[in-house]
Amino acid sequence: MNESVWLPLLVIASSLIPGVIIFALAERRVKLRTTLNLCGALLKMALVGAMLWGVYHGQHYEVRLALLPQLELVLRADALSLLFVTLSSVLWLVTTVYAIGYLEGSPNRSRFFGFFSLCVTATVGLALAGNLITFLIFYELLTLATYPLIMHRGTEASRRAGKIYLRYTMAGGALLLVAIIWLYTLSGTLEFTPQGFLDGIDEQHHPALIIIFVLLIAGLGVKAALVPLHGWLPEAMVAPAPVSALLHAVAVVKAGAFGIIRVVYDVFGVDFATLLGVTGPLVIVAAITIVYGSLRALFQDDLKRRLAYSTVSQVAYITLGVAIAGPIAAVGGMVHLVHQGLMKITLFFCAGNLAETLGIHKVSEMNGVGRRMPWTMAAFTVGVFGMIGAPPVAGFISKWYLGMGALEMDQGWLILVLAASSLLNAAYFLPILYAAWFCEPSGPWPEERNFGRKETAWALLLPPVVTALLALAVGLLALAPFTPLAWVEFVVQREFVP
Amino acid sequence: MVPSSEIPWGALLILLPLAAAILCFVWPKLAVVTGVVTMLLLTLAVGGFAWQLQREGLYQHAVGGWETPLGIGLYGDGLSLLMLAMTVLVGLAITLYARSYFNQKQARVFWPLWLLLLAALNALFLSADIFNLYITLEMVGLAAVALVALKGGRDALNGAMRYLLATLLGSLTYLLGVALLYHSYGTVDLVLLAERIDNSPVVWAALGLMGAGLLLKTALFPLHFWLPAAHASAPAPISALLSALLVKASFYIFLRLWLVLFAPLGGDVALLLGLLGAVAILWGSWQALRQTRLKLLVAYSTVAQIGYLFVAFPLAAAAGAMLWNGVSYLMLSHALAKAAMFLAAGNLLLFGGHDRIAELDRAVQRLPISTAAFALAGVSIMGVPPSGGFIGKWLLLEAAIEQGYWLLAAVMVVGGLLASAYIFKVVGYAFTRSTATPEPQSIPMGMEWAALLLAIASILLGFTAPWVFALLGIGDPFGGGAP
After folding, report:
1. B372 in a domain, yes or no?
2. How far apart are CA A492 and CA A495, in angstroms?
3. Is the pTM for the entire model greater than 0.95?
4. How far is Cα A415 from Cα A405, in angstroms, rounded to an integer?
5. pLDDT at residue B466 is higher than 60
6. d(Cα B116, Cα A399) in Å, to the nearest integer?
7. Which of A170, A183, A184, A222 to mutate to test the interface with B (most CBs of B within 10 A)?
8. Using one digit for the tens of pLDDT, what is the confidence trace for B19-53?
9. How far is CA A170 from CA A156, A245, B30, B84, B419, in A?
10. In B130-266, alpha helices (H)
11. What pLDDT score was predicted for residue B435?
12. What angle do CA B113, B117, B119 make, to 5 degrees?
């Protein structure tokens, strides 16, 4: 027993235990709840930092617990899992601060923060999962923990959204379960292995493996919002802003995307997946999703809905990068996991600020809002440029690598998809910026709250500014050591250099 | 001082509650105390029994020193232990719940009957011959009928009547089969029967009768008709014990008979059972989804979950002991989860004054502990990880997929989805905005926690499988060596 066993457990416990305690807290224990939330989040960051340092220096972190005589629950920190764990823990801290400000004075906060912590626990757990069954356990836990968050407001609309969300995700979970068990009966192991563990399987099982791949991607694609499985995501935007932020940037959609990365790289292996011929169709699905999501975003007047469709499109970049099956595209896809997270969370924070401070929910109400809330809109602007892929914001790096990767694998037509997507992104985002900065307000704000000299509460303002700065920094300093890009290159070596 | 390894723990498990039942009957004032103390002692005794079993490998005890063809033999292996442990776990929660649930008049009737029922259940799980199994099954059934009728009133009596008819019909049919076997082979001992039995029309008739009787009591589709009304109309703790323990008792006998007598004889029967199980899953889940009353919903969910136990039969021949481990685990986790659900439903009903699902939002929101219990138990019923239900379902699905029984696999998965639909139909009300003003808590804490603790246990079962399987393998109940 040493730190290599304890660290992964502690990383899980640092949000699980505060979560369970928070459930039991009375509604009025605001201070204790806030303390628990923040301490948990800070502690998790520190633990993850220690683990990053260790993994970089070749330390091995792993815990095993037998679930069934031959199946184990495995938590293991490899370079890829740490990419996602770090993203989750940083953004959890930021979102917690935001949520504390956002929900001030509203009912049922103990319930909210309890499930919020569970949600992060599930995300970190599936990031650390060392085999498919562990992944499945946390994947399902994530479904169950997110449902109450989507339903939190208790309105008719949120009940509807919750129902739709459950239908999609439970069905996805069921597909995943069948696929995993089937895979297990063929291979006898579920352990994530660099370059996959299936290439030794007898050729007569290859058709079955193709079906299994389709089932796995379908099960994961529900959460990753691949078209046509994306229907729940635009509905789920009725959730409170911090939940949307977490859902779109870290927890749910990323869990799906991360799962796809794991399946392609560590279950099938890129080479074997290419041999089976399953990566080609996946590229097409991702490309369709990218264009379709952008097209739909163009026609949404509801700001959060527009952002939601933008997520559908942007998360498919990750799938695309993985499916192209070349090292450079892989870098682009995986680094987008982080980059999209930072940018999208910024946008959702800003949307939440507009709704909370001025009562703005629609794009058509945003005229002149830049002058009323300059900091919020500045952060929003950074996010928007990132989404479009303009340098030097992070999104540019992702798109650059994706484009180069497509060329490397002779899939030049994908450049057109990327360009079309950028154009569409510009088409649905830039009018917002124009209206916000250059138009006159068309009248009084729908529902203005006054915060004195500040544009809004500190807890609401700081998080988007911080994440916007981070998105800018990881783009500007992309080539420095210890940026997401550098780390992703470290990850990709493992898959592509035998 | 007798060394603890020589204490006859098995016999104590039967005698203790029996003596306590008599004590309660004679001295009603002490009923609650006796009940609680007995339950705690029983827990201890099961612990002792487990320890003894682990040391000695198999438990055999000839009552009064008379050896088996003549006397009554007690017999225990890993499967018996699992059933005893299940009884004790559910029993603890029901005891905690019933302490506050019944008024004084009802308590006088409840405690002696409940202790008698426990004695009978324990005796059933330790019996090794088909006649003793009949006696204990009948005792269990009669005690249960009286408990169903406990509250009086038209609904309760109607439910009790249905239950009485089903249980009598079931045990008489079973008895007929026992008589036929005894007539032909001159023994009722399971082991001796297994040696002597052959493939003759008499055997088929006997096994058919015994099987049909047990399936009726287990409420396998289409013999489930009596269950929803009986389970839903009983008082909450009784519903819990009916769904959690009673259907399992008759299933346990069926499983024992199957392992020793049936399995060598019939493969087609196994397939038929599997298909009935599959229909039960779909029909029960669908009916549960359609119910507008909470307790009926939970009762129909039991019909569906029993289906899962039978889906295993056609898979067993090729899958071996691990599959039976899965079935036993499913049985255990269903017992805990379903008892938790009925207790939680009882709380909601008591608080809201009714159990119409569409109007439950006020109760659901004022009783967070009960709602959490319902939801957590629901996770296990759905078979979503981490939970005992997931482990059981995983093993079943693995066997089904491995052997190419895609239809059964699909039914199991669809059953899980339907289960999530009917459970969230209830849990969803926790998140509406109700306008009711806060009101004083009127459900005793013990009743809420009894439900929650059971539900948590059904979740924790998701992590204990290797350990439980090791205990289950004692005495090799499923053949094919210990896992």
Report:
1. yes
2. 5
3. no
4. 10
5. yes
6. 73
7. A170
8. 999 998 888 888 889 999 999 999 999 999 999 88
9. 21, 22, 50, 34, 11
10. 130-148, 154-185, 190-196, 201-218, 227-233, 236-241, 247-257
11. 59
12. 120
Interface of A with B in 153-212 (CB under 8 A): 154-155, 158-159, 162-163, 166, 170-171, 173-174, 177-178, 181-182, 184-185
Work out the angle at residue A368's Cα, subtended by the Cα atoms of residues A365 and A373, and round it to the nearest 5 degrees. 100
- Most A-contacting residue of B431, B435, B445 (CB-CB within 10 A), to test interface: B431
Rounded CA separation B397/B401 (Å)? 6
Collapsing DSSP to helix, strand or coil, A62 comes out as strand
pLDDT exceeds cutoff 70 at A462: yes
Is B105 a member of any domain? no
Short-list A247, A261, A184, CA closest to A217: A261
State how many domains chain B has.
1
Candidates A109, A170, A162; CA nearest to A136 is A170
Closest by Cα among A167, A288, A294 to A236: A167
3-state secondary structure of A131: strand
C-beta of residue B134 within 8 angstroms of C-beta of residue B178: yes
User: Is the peptide bond between B17 and the residue preceding it cis, with omega within 30 degrees of 0?
Assistant: no
Q: What is the per-residue pLDDT across A289-344, written as a single tens digit (0 to 9) for each?
A: 999 999 999 999 899 999 999 999 999 999 999 999 888 999 999 999 999 999 99
**Does B440 sit behind a cis peptide bond, omega within 30 degrees of 0 on the bond before it?**
no
- Rounded CA gap, B85 and A455, in Å? 62
Q: Is there a contact between A69 and B483 if contact means CB atoms under 8 Å apart? A: yes
Q: For residue B188, is it within any domain? A: no
A69 vs B335, residue with greater confidence: B335
Q: Does B433 sit within 8 Å of A155, measured CB to CB?
A: yes
Q: Which of A140, A148, A166 sits opposite B385 (nearest CB)?
A: A140
Cα(A99)–Cα(A341) distance, rounded to whole angstroms? 17
Q: Which domain holds residue B330?
A: 275-483
What is the structure's pLDDT at A2?
Answer: 62
pLDDT of residue B441: 58
Interface of chain B against chain A, CB under 8 Å? 322, 368, 372, 379, 384-386, 391, 394-395, 397-398, 401-402, 409, 413, 416-417, 420, 424, 428, 430-433, 462-463, 465-466, 469, 483
Residue B354 dihedral angles phi and psi, to the nearest 5°? -160, 170
Tokens of A293: 């999501």
Which residue bears the tokens 């008499």?
A: B202
Residue B304 inside a domain? The answer is: yes
